[in-house]
Amino acid sequence: ADAFDEDCDYLFKAVLIGDSGVGKSNLLSRFAKDEFRLDSKPTIGVEFAYRNVKVSEKLIKAQIWDTAGQERFRAITSSYYRGALGALLVYDITRRATFESVKKWLRELRQFGSSDMVVILLGNKLDLGHSREVSQEEGNHLAEEEGLCFMETSALEKLNVEEAFLLMITKIHEITS
Ligand code: GDP
Ligand code: MG
């Protein structure tokens, strides 16, 4: 551990999941580095990124794992989920098929992840409201049914990105402290 690790009170692992192209990597780069890419380079995805956040006077180091595009081949392995305390499950509000995959992702989460994992459902690409295929009510309804928190985000326009990650991190902190 480097000097910095010793200064932080908690280290949390969380994962990003959801169909290919929904914006997972851009949500993470927005949160971790405040960057956005118009082109999608799924194979160059980082393994994970860190950001430090302060929650109730505790310094938390959030380690967020991203896929390197394996979700296209349904090849995410159990090690991806191991030790994860939270998950951001992302769909694209302009592609209904990605919303329909949410239940499949939840099954995988429940199979490989820990049962008390904090799961936040995110409908991303809120900036593309004119091509919306999934209403906010549908997102809300599914989240209620499955006992998840729900938000709509835009990695492009920085809408609710910070809020979504912080909600997850705060909830993890509540559960673990
Ligand atoms: P991933 O496969 O889930 O990691 O998705 P990416 O982050 O690679 O994004 C896929 C494509 O969607 C890229 O072309 C991004 O620029 C685009 N994208 C991601 N988030 C948003 C968003 O919030 N709004 C818009 N308009 N495009 C987005
Ligand atoms: Mg990606």
Summary tags:
six-stranded mixed sheet; 177 residues; binds guanosine-5'-diphosphate; alpha/beta; 7 helices; 6 strands; globular; prenylation; nucleotide-binding; binds magnesium ion
Strand line-up in the sheet with most strands: 2-3-1-4-5-6
Task: Provide the structure class.
Answer: alpha/beta
Unique bound compounds: guanosine-5'-diphosphate, magnesium ion
First-to-last CA distance? 22 Å
Instruction: Sum up the overall morphology in one term.
Output: globular
Number of helices: 7
Summarize the structure.
The protein is an alpha/beta fold. It has helices at residues 3-7, 24-33, 78-81, 96-100, 102-112, 136-146, 161-176, and strands spanning 10-17, 48-55, 58-65, 86-92, 118-124, 149-152.
Description:
By secondary structure, the chain is α/β, with parallel strands linked by helices. The chain has 7 helices and 6 strands; from the N terminus they run H-E-H-E-E-H-E-H-H-E-H-E-H. The chain has helices at 3-7, 24-33, 78-81, 96-100, 102-112, 136-146, 161-176, and strands at residues 10-17, 48-55, 58-65, 86-92, 118-124, 149-152. The longest helix has 16 residues, at 161-176. The radius of gyration is 15 Å and the shape is globular. The mean pLDDT is 91. The structure holds guanosine-5'-diphosphate and magnesium ion. Magnesium ion binds next to helix 2.
